[in-house]
Write a structure and sequence with these properties.
By secondary structure, the chain is of the alpha/beta class. The chain folds into two domains: 232 residues, Rossmann fold (3-Layer(aba) Sandwich); 169 residues, Molybdenum Cofactor Biosythetic Enzyme, Chain A. The chain contains 15 helices and 18 strands. A hairpin with a 5-residue loop joins strand 17 and strand 18. The radius of gyration is 21 Å and the shape is globular. The two termini are 31 Å apart. The structure holds adenosine-5'-diphosphate and the ligand O=C(O)[C@@H](O)C(=O)COP(=O)(O)O. The site of adenosine-5'-diphosphate has 24 residues, from helix 12, helix 13 and helix 14.
Length: 424
């Protein structure tokens, strides 16, 4: 079998989320860190290239995404997928619009969809409005995100600010009528000059119908949810085996640790739950880091004797509530605060691995990007799911490790303690 789906993800946890979804739906999938060099791995149906392009300058994001596309194209992929966040994380400058435009131009296609829906994680799109649980995006914790605060829930408006292509909507009335109705709506939208259609979706059934209508689109842009409905197209075309499941991992053994740089609502609750249940946590204060205090050394010295502890693996976290994050950003600036914390957590992760850690949970997309790069990881095999959107993985390149890269807002409140049981 040849490579079928080539994916470009704008952050590392998002890439793992998508890869996990494809594995669940029966595609053998490998995640590559950054644009790979050399030939593609053998015996895989899909490749997800993880970039750290969500919050870089739009021209950098475009450049990297085009390099990724070119590699995937040369590797023989038949369809391409641009994965962004289920909360559509972006700014008015990008990067969802500019990257979509560039990929469409490079592929010579005049139509694609945009759909961040991930109903299992309570991200739904209705009438073009994005909901997080029962709240509009702009009323959810995403309004306080440290890097990409989302204050407009109307995805047509959000995307139209980022692209000169005409943005339209395939609303739920159409989606509910199934794949053929969606295909017909796409044809009529094209004749109206629409080039990017936001698509409503509130359930996995919707995702399957939408997937069916996307069989012939060269480019799909979406969160990870839409990926559930794509493998069926390859199966129908006789390109994908029925039983092609690949979530078995060879798990490296060693000490365990948790690193958290996410300030999202779910991660704040997970950190609070971990500490409240008497487990060991070490907080990284960005202002003390900025003042030159050696918090990296102190965190590692604190963690070392706790690595063999029975009361759970140690947690090192910069996770903080929105007011605390704002105070830090007011003093250091958003970008500097982000980098300072990411670099510190990445250095701590490397120090932990030197001290014998082989199984690690990392919370936060940007944080995971920094950690994985610092560890010299070049790719990830995707294993079993812990919670929707978060699979265990094992590393290619660098030291053999089991890693779970958790998107900020994913996972149940006891994620940091329960995740280990999935590895056994
Ligand atoms: N206490 C803090 N103050 C300011 N910024 C922080 C703090 N803790 C973490 N950060 C930064 O916030 C950003 C969180 O983004 P990310 O890791 O992608 O998490 P999420 O997945 O929740 O979006 C990172 O750049 C991180 O370094
Ligand atoms: O689609 C999603 O929600 C995730 O896959 C994702 O991209 C989350 O990003 P972070 O919250 O920055 O980890």
């Amino acid at each position: 079998m040849t490579l079928l789906l080539g994916c470009i993800a704008d952050d590392f946890t998002g890439a793992t989320d998508l890869a996990g979804m494809l594995v669940r739906a029966g595609m053998r999938t490998v995640q590559m860190i950054g644009v790979p060099v050399g030939p593609p791995p053998q015996d895989v149906d899909a490749i997800v290239i993880a970039l750290k392009s969500r919050t870089t300058l739009p021209q950098e994001a475009v450049q990297e995404s085009l390099s990724a596309l070119s590699w995937l194209h040369d590797a023989g992929c038949r369809q391409f997928y641009f994965k962004y966040c289920s909360t559509f994380d972006s700014t008015d400058q990008g990067n969802i619009g500019p990257v979509t435009d560039a990929l469409m131009n490079a592929l010579g296609t005049d139509f694609t969809i945009a759909c961040p829906a991930f109903p299992e994680n309570k991200r739904t799109v209705f009438k073009g409005y994005l909901f997080v649980g029962d709240e509009l995006l702009s009323e959810s914790g995403m309004r306080n995100h440290p890097l990409t605060p989302m204050t407009d829930p109307n995805l047509m408006r959000v995307l139209q600010r980022q692209t000169s292509r005409k943005v339209g909507l395939i609303d739920h009335d159409v989606v509910a009528r199934g794949g053929a109705a969606i295909t017909a709506r796409i044809a009529s939208m094209k004749s109206e000059g629409v080039q990017i259609a936001i698509v409503d979706a509130v359930s996995n059934d919707d995702l399957m119908c939408i997937g069916e209508a996307l069989a012939d689109l060269p480019l799909v842009t979406a969160g990870s949810g839409i990926a559930l409905g794509l493998p069926q197209n390859f199966r129908r075309a006789g390109l994908l085996d029925d039983g092609a499941v690949a979530d078995k991992l060879d798990v490296p053994q060693g000490a365990r640790a948790v690193i958290s740089g996410s300030c999202s609502v779910a991660t704040n609750a997970q950190v609070a739950h971990f500490i409240a249940s008497g487990r060991p946590g070490f907080a990284i204060d960005p202002l003390r880091l900025a003042d030159g205090e050696d918090l990296i050394g102190k965190a590692l010295a604190w963690a070392e004797p706790r690595l063999a502890n029975a009361d759970g693996p140690p947690l090192i976290y910069a996770t903080a509530a929105p007011e605390a994050v704002k105070t830090v950003q007011a003093r250091l600036g958003v970008e500097r605060a982000g980098h300072l914390v990411e670099e510190a957590l990445a250095a701590i992760a490397c120090g932990l691995v030197e001290r014998g850690v082989r199984q690690m949970l990392v919370a936060g997309g940007e944080t995971s990007g920094a950690v994985v790069k610092a560890l010299g990881v070049t790719g990830l095999h995707i294993g079993p799911q812990i919670d929707p959107g978060v699979p265990w993985t094992t590393t290619l390149g660098g030291k053999p490790l089991a890693l779970a890269l958790k998107s900020g807002n994913f996972g149940s409140v006891d994620f940091f303690t329960k995740a280990w049981s999935v590895l056994q």
